[in-house]
Amino acid sequence: MCTKGAAIAELFTKAIATTKGFDQNLRKLKVVCCDNGRMTTEFQVGPEHLNQRGTLHGGFIAHLVDAISTYALTTNEKVDTRGVSIELSVSYMSAARVGDNVEVEAITKKVGKKIAFLEVLVKNKDKNQLLATGRHTKYIGI
Predict the structure, then answer these.
(1) Among 83, 100, 125, 131, which residue has the least CB neighbours within 10 Å?
(2) Euclidean distance between the first and the last CA atom of the chain, given in angstroms as a whole number
(3) CATH number, domain at 60?
(4) What is the DSSP secondary structure assignment for residue 128, as one 8-state letter?
């Protein structure tokens, strides 16, 4: 892990451990890798992550895309801001259930002067199955 990546991983871990806000839903996430423009986390699906059908909630997946890609962006040596979201989209492909181990990998695809583009893969590690893909566009010219 680069120095900035290690600092961002530590910031992420502390922030989700102490927040009283919406991000407390991320408390089970563990940072696996955090390096220049990338972040990978994993967690085990718990009851608090489910929708009424008993599968991983789509809103929670969208939250993962937003949060993890934002932290991935901040590990980039050229970026000094979290920016603000311009667009966020998620394509859902498969379901996960309680006890499944999920990996979330966010990659900074491009950083321009004012706009950054990120992609996220959400996978069921146990089945080696893609659950969702996400795209996140952020304004960073602030």
Answers:
(1) 125
(2) 27
(3) 3.10.129.10
(4) T
Average pLDDT over residues 76-102: 94
User: pLDDT tens across 10-50, in order?
Assistant: 888 888 788 888 877 888 999 999 998 999 999 999 999 99
* Domain of residue 120, residue span: 3-139
The first and second tokens of residue 100, run together, are 């499944």
pLDDT value at residue 30: 94
DSSP state of 26: G
Q: How many domains does the chain have?
A: 1
The burial of 53, by beta-carbon neighbours within 10 Å (0-12 exposed, 13-18 middle, 19 or more buried), is given as exposed
Distances (CA, A) of 27 to 20, 41, 102, 140: 11, 11, 14, 26
- The single residue listed with the structure tokens 């002067």 is 113
Tokens representing 129 are: 């199955």
